Amino acid sequence: MPSSKEYLDFILDQLSELEDINCRAMMGEFIIYYRGKIVGGIYDDRLLVKAVPSAVMYMPNASYELPYPGAKEMLLVDGVEDKAFITGLFNAMYDELPVPKMKKKR
User: Fold this and answer.
1) pTM here?
2) Alpha-carbon span 98 to 106, nearest angstrom
3) If both were cysteines, with which of 23, 48, 97, 99 could 74 make a disulfide (CB 3.0 to 4.6 Å apart)?
4) Based on the number of CB atoms within 10 Å of its own CB, is 94 exposed (0-12), middle (13-18) or buried (19 or more)?
């Protein structure tokens, strides 16, 4: 089941205090970028983030879920209604997120 535009809009509104939040649609779901790094995405109307150590520490009781079959497990963000919580999570994760690989020009 693809994620809804309404849920995406809700999550983007919750993240509106952060600078440089972007998203990209991909096969009915949405990848979320924070200052150029992939933080996670919206899959089946669930916000999932990469399971970097800072995210695990920030949400010690979070469940691990698959965004889609064959993918790496990610952490389910269970507090999306709390704007301060979700903003703090993204800020806590930023330094540990990998820098995107540069695409080769042909």
Assistant:
1) 0.90
2) 24
3) 48
4) middle
Q: What is the pLDDT of residue 49?
A: 97
**What's the CA gap between 49 and 97, in Å, rounded?**
10
Question: Is 23 within 8 Å of 33 (Cβ atoms)?
Answer: yes
Burial 1-34 (b: 16+ CB within 10 A, else e): eebeeebbebbbebbeebeebebeeeeebbbbbb
Looking at every residue in the chain, the average pLDDT score rounds to 93
Q: Are 77 and 59 in contact (CB under 8 A)?
A: yes
Tokens of 30: 């949405």
